[in-house]
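Forwarding the complex inputs:
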Amino acid sequence: MAVQVRIPTILRSYTGGEKAVSGSGGTLAELIDDLDGRYEGIKARLVTDDGSLHRFVNVYVNDEDVRFLGSLSAPLADGDDVTILPAVAGG
Amino acid sequence: MRFDSLVDSVGHTPLVGLPRLSPSPDVRLWAKLEDRNPTGSVKDRAALWMIADAEKRGRLHPGATVLEPTSGNTGISLAMVCLQRGYRLVCVMPENTSVERRQLLRMWGAEVIFSPAAGGSNEAVAVAKRIAADNPDWVMLYQYGNPANAQAHFDSTGPELLADLPTMTHFVAGLGTSGTLMGVGRYLREHAPDVRIVAAEPRYGELVYGLRNIDEGFVPELYDPAILDARFSVGPRDALARTRELVELEGVFAGISTGAILHAALAQAERAVAAGIRADIAFIVCDGGWKYLSTGAYSGTLDEAARALEGQLWA
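Prediction (whole assembly, two chains):
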């Protein structure tokens, strides 16, 4: 299952400067493991030691926040667009 | 309607149906016209409640200086209230905001200190916190963590919405400080618990996310995800397309963040149609389009308009 993953500027040091990479996995957790296999160290920036999504990292599947879709267990389907962004202030 | 002064006229905004954008008579969209507030945005409610709360707590005295990090609308609303109450206002605003916002702030008597574009509002918050530390007698209301911000919507926006639309099934608003969503959301959880609370947040260009480190990220202290049912990220192209549809089909001339909210509201409408269920979807029109004319949002192709917004804090 192939998905497109958009990488924020702050994490592109792991992807050799690539803005978007493809990955695979049936859930967000599997996708992150897959990415970490090729871009070693990226998982540690996204997931905390206790196994939850980092507080200041937002991940969206087809523009919907994964925290409302099961977080790391959020299901992924072929062709999904995944966007990773740091949490910033609005207002 | 008659009021003793301008600040007394905050709120009680119209809720209007959008028959041409609504997909069917069973799935309807309703726009809460917050641009009808005294300075033309939803932030008048938060500003008035935060000032009144600070006065009640004895934090503000005649001639006091109020300090606030803001990308624009909150500052403009605070400036209007401070002007009437005799306070001096200092706003810290990112430099990548529309020129109209600074003109309006100065017109209402506020002083503006600019923070660097990179990092967006995060940087404005950081700069304001440093200034507050250097000026301990100044009062920072701090919209991101001030419960009076959400309380404004619990006390006013929420009750107005439910009174006007008792059949409401969805409420959709923008996520910035999270004040509107938390306040209206909590009110609806208590009085209409089946209403789905949906957040739409703007997705900006890369410059705005230019943190040096993930740990510099920011989540407003007011934000409680337990109040929400879903949260969507909306990019500038979708926001612009919906902003234009809103004025072209329904005659509602709104700012760009409203387009982002409408985009999320229409997604909820499509889901209701697909599921064959009735829906009354209320959403917030945060402000009118006037402050964004200089950004080119309403002219040229969508691609041109989206390019012009790159690097701007458009919501």
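Chain A has one domain: 2-86.
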